[in-house]
TrEMBL record:
Protein name (record): General alpha-glucoside permease
Sorted UniProt keywords: Membrane, Transmembrane, Transmembrane helix, Transport
One of the record's GO molecular function terms: sucrose:proton symporter activity
Organism placement in taxonomy: Eukaryota, Fungi, Dikarya, Ascomycota, Pezizomycotina
Chain ranges passing through the membrane: 46-63, 83-103, 115-134, 154-172, 233-254, 352-369, 381-401, 407-433, 454-477, 483-501
Length: 504
């Protein structure tokens, strides 16, 4: 198990024997597979190794929960905003697998994964701060501002903000691929499920941090008088999470720069072409290990539904309290009830907070089940199956959601399914690819994780386009609950993914 042997040496000083005692020698020959299989990382080391997931999650959660309102505050139209959010799944589908290949082939002195983590994280943190200060950066000093100069500066602000989002979603792919591969690299096979569980818990913590701040703002309006100060505060919190977690893992976790099996690096153009060429891509897809192949196939359908759930959940809660037709009628009559709008905004924020709390509670429950059941690893597909069924029923229950409280309950149960979706697919794949030479792609951790990310990203592109078409058609037909109908249609993909999970 050449690559895993080298990978595990990064935390060699923190490995412990099965009986819990420290190993007598600080350095071992980690090319010995039998020795590695008898070792395990301590809980504190798993906690440290997976902590960068906190920084990753706050980045995605900030974009999903506050990105659209912030861009709209810059007078960027909803149609352009929808196209901007397509950059995430597009880069995830094609850029992240390329970064995974490059990291597999890397021989950088810092290691195979750290250069991608550090460069990607630095770029993301810088661009988030720049995005939050877009108006301040693009508004240069003027002696006598005019309407033309104001509109020009505003146009500059919009272009600058869109460019920042594009750079963030691109750099996130290097950051994310490096973090995920580093975790697989440094964990013994028997602890891959535990590492995935800790990654999920850090993701939940990221959701809780930002959703709590957003809820407090909606409840107490701490930042609203200062315009976009709320987004600036959230960007600072996000940057702090990135700096602390990436700094910790970079300092304490070693990263090997050795290439598996002494293979020479392939030309960059050949690597990229193998990712973009349909024939080459199909070839590598068919070479995936059996469990990874099935999980990726399931994700192709599951993420058709997860895209609207993640991006439109807060809007669904808002529209349940303040339906589109009702809001438009009030606006046309000039009788817009500010208190009703504030009530709808409160449900928008509280729904995301309860979603995060439900995810957190489910993660704790899964942790207890894992320790209570000796054969928990064999139960993971079954838990994933029931979770997907639960998500599908929640999407259908939108037929009966008429109040903000009902919508919040439905969204909370969706949060429980999200906890499972963040853990079990990654645990199944990580456990398989950490074994010795699982396939013709043996040792290609970044490659396999990149293909898995592609399986999650491609359906998001399709789903985003379908959502835009459906919302436009429903708006033309004067049907107000467009988000609810998107959820109901998404249940078809959810139940089919559950059928595929059942075949696992």
């Amino acid at each position: 198990m050449d690559e895993l042997s080298v990978k595990a040496s990064s935390l060699g000083d923190n490995l412990s024997a099965p009986d819990g005692s420290d190993l007598p020698e600080p350095r071992r020959d980690f090319h010995d597979e039998q020795y590695l299989s008898q070792c395990s990382l301590k809980s504190r080391d798993l906690l440290l190794l997976t902590c960068p997931n906190l920084g990753l999650q706050v980045c995605w959660f900030l974009l999903m929960s506050s990105g659209t309102p912030y861009l709209e505050s810059l007078d960027i139209s909803k149609s352009i905003t929808s196209l901007v959010w397509l950059t995430g799944p597009i880069f995830g589908a094609f850029a992240q697998p390329i970064f995974g290949i490059l990291s597999d082939e890397s021989r950088h002195p810092w290691g195979k994964r750290k250069p991608f983590i550090l460069c990607g994280a630095s770029c993301v943190a810088t661009c988030f701060l720049a995005l939050a200060c877009a108006e301040d950066i693009t508004d240069g000093p003027t002696n006598a501002p005019t309407a033309d100069s104001d509109s020009t500066k505003h146009w500059y602000t919009q272009v600058f903000a869109i460019a920042c989002v594009g750079v963030i979603t691109f750099a996130m792919q290097a950051y994310q691929s490096g973090v995920r591969a580093l975790i697989v690299d440094n964990c013994p096979p028997q602890q891959q499920a535990a590492a995935s569980a800790w990654s999920m818990r850090w993701n939940v913590a990221g959701n809780l941090v930002l959703s709590t701040v957003g809820f407090l703002d909606a409840k107490r309006t701490f930042f609203r008088p200062e315009g976009n100060a709320k987004f600036k505060i959230l960007a600072v919190v996000t940057t702090a999470c990135i700096v602390v977690t990436v700094g910790l893992v970079s300092y304490y976790v070693a990263d090997s720069s050795q290439n598996p099996r002494g293979k020479s690096r392939q030309p960059l153009t050949k690597l990229c072409w193998s990712m973009l060429c349909p024939a080459e891509l199909s070839k590598h897809w068919n070479q995936l290990p059996p469990v990874s192949h099935r999980v990726c196939t399931i994700q192709l359908f599951a993420w058709v539904a997860w895209f609207p759930v993640l991006y439109y959940t807060s809007t669904f809660a808002y529209e349940t309290v303040l339906p589109y037709n009702f809001a438009r009628e009030l606006h046309e009559k000039g009788q817009l009830d500010i208190r009703l709008i504030e009530h709808a905004e409160l449900h928008r924020s509280s729904s995301m907070l309860y979603f995060a709390f439900a995810t957190f509670a489910t993660s704790l429950l899964l942790h207890m089940i894992e320790h209570a059941m000796p054969a928990f690893d064999h139960t993971q597909p079954r838990i994933w199956f029931f979770s997907q069924c639960s998500l599908g029923f929640c999407l259908l229950l939108t037929f009966f959601a008429r109040t903000g409280a009902t919508a919040t309950i439905i969204i909370s149960v969706m949060g429980a399914s999200w906890a499972v979706a963040m853990w079990i697919p990654f645990a199944l794949i990580s456990a398989e690819i950490s074994q010795p030479s699982p396939s013709k792609l043996g040792g290609k951790t970044g490659w396999i994780l990149g293909l898995h990310n592609m399986a999650m990203s491609l359906p998001q592109i399709v789903s985003a386009i379908l959502c835009a078409v459906i919302l436009g058609a429903l708006r033309w037909l004067n049907i107000g609950d467009g988000i609810a109908w998107i959820f109901r249609l998404a249940s078809i993909a959810v139940f089919y993914s559950a059928y595929l999970i059942n075949k696992l």
